[in-house]
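just leaving the lab so this will be short. below you get a single protein, a line of residues and a line of whole numbers that encode the local backbone shape. id like you to explain what the token line says about the fold, in plain words if possible. thanks a lot i owe you, the record is right below:

…
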Amino acid sequence: MITSAAVADELADAHRLAISGRDTYWNCLAQEYQRDSDKALSGEDFTLHIASICPSERQNFRVSLVGYLAMEFPDVDSGSHMTTANNAIASAQQDVITAFIRHKARTK
């Protein structure tokens, strides 16, 4: 019983860490979205820019999410967890890019 409680606590901690990593990465992307210097970029240039920013936050999110998924789904291969994490990162980037392009279209 103590072992399963300890495992549940570890899983909860891993989940909190993954959520924190996600939030930190999102906040970093949001700060970049709000920068005045980026407003003059084209959609294509902004896309390239977003892919290169927040490297430590992005990596922290990836590592924490893969760690959580490995604990939650130990029978799934690690490559699948990495794919899931990379897809989450790509989705976050795409959301910011979409918002940027829509905002830019409205201000023309």
In short: Residues 33 and 99 are 9 Å apart (CA to CA). The chain has a mean pLDDT of 92. DSSP finds four helices and no strands in the chain. The radius of gyration is 17 Å.
